[in-house]
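Give me structure tokens for this 180-residue protein.
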Amino acid sequence: MSRIGKKPVQLPDKVQVTLNGDIVQVKGPKGNLERQVHPAVTIEKKDSVLEFRTDDNDKKKVALQGLFRSLIANMVTGVSSGYEKQLVLAGIGYRAETRGNNLVLNVGYSNPVEYVLPDGVNAMVENNTKITLSAIDKELLGQTAANIRDIRPPEPYKGKGIMYADERIMRKAGKTAGKN
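Here you go.
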């Protein structure tokens, strides 16, 4: 049994949830999100609480119950307070800047790399090496951060690359001089 699926989702004061069949719409001060819910999961709204149920205890349906409870809870948090993810550029000459809706990265290639940010994701660059991404959609934010990190992933020998702010890179020892 899914313990996460059984936990109700508390709705903050300024968040409104609308249930239209299998479509859930969440509106809050930061924006609007909507998601289609699997037909095996039913959502009940009581006052300012959302409860998730399945019709039987089939293993896959219980897993879906926990999944959609987490997704809806992330939507509620996103429209009320939003999400942030930080990336750090490590390396000599590595820098970033924003140009409109584009993120321009100089990360050791012969030409700068331009990354077009998707709608709903905002980027802010501090000190040319710290990128702060913010959005209301947690899934879109995480995918965008992963795509930016894939432009130049951190390497284990010198520690150069684009990494998450809380990421630790396990360093490897380089080659040693000749043995006698």
